[in-house]
Amino acid sequence: MFNSEPFIAFGLWLFHVIANRNLAFFSPQGSCQLTKLALWHIIHGLPWRVTAVMLADTLEWYRDHEKCLISEFKRIFLSGFPDSILDQLGDSIVNWVERVPRRRFGKILNGDIVLCRHIAKQTGILLDPIYTLAAWEHSVLLSLEAEKDSDIVMLHTGGTLGLFGIAQRRPEEFLYAG
């Protein structure tokens, strides 16, 4: 299985030179990678905010999972980090947000595929209406609300993306028309 963590770390290192970052993700079913990322930025003293769009479960489920991962991290590495870093690790270090509009996981709304195609034509960025479109939409919202000289970064943390899964199920909607 492909391990995306080295690539995530490398990509985040590249952004280290610019301080104000707001990282937007989508989180289908797990918060493991996102919690690791949030821990990573705190440990390295980066003033970033990690925002994750919840796609498959409740806020309570994501927070419980995140809390468990943070507790496990503290248990294993308690003596390896200064108190100033450990003090920053509360019960929640990821900003969890709901997908707007809310929907059952996997449901594609009218216009989602057209929007993905439009974004691909305008930017060259391929999005899937089930997963990455949610992070894209939230990234756009964050960029409209962002302070001057701050950046919004949308990353995919690996997992089981299946980016073209929807295109395989609905090829007629993704064919190039010209």
From TrEMBL:
Signal peptide positions on this chain: 1-24
Obligatory cofactor(s): pyridoxal 5'-phosphate
Tagged with keyword Signal: yes
Gene3D superfamilies according to UniProt: 3.40.50.1100
Gene Ontology MF: a single term: D-cysteine desulfhydrase activity
UniProt xrefs under InterPro entries: ACCD_DCysDesulf, TrpB-like_PALP_sf
Keywords assigned: Pyridoxal phosphate, Signal
Claim: Signal is one of the keywords in the record: yes
Family, per entry: Belongs to the ACC deaminase/D-cysteine desulfhydrase family.
Protein name, entry field: 1-aminocyclopropane-1-carboxylate deaminase
Lineage, broadest ranks: Eukaryota, Viridiplantae, Streptophyta, Embryophyta, Tracheophyta
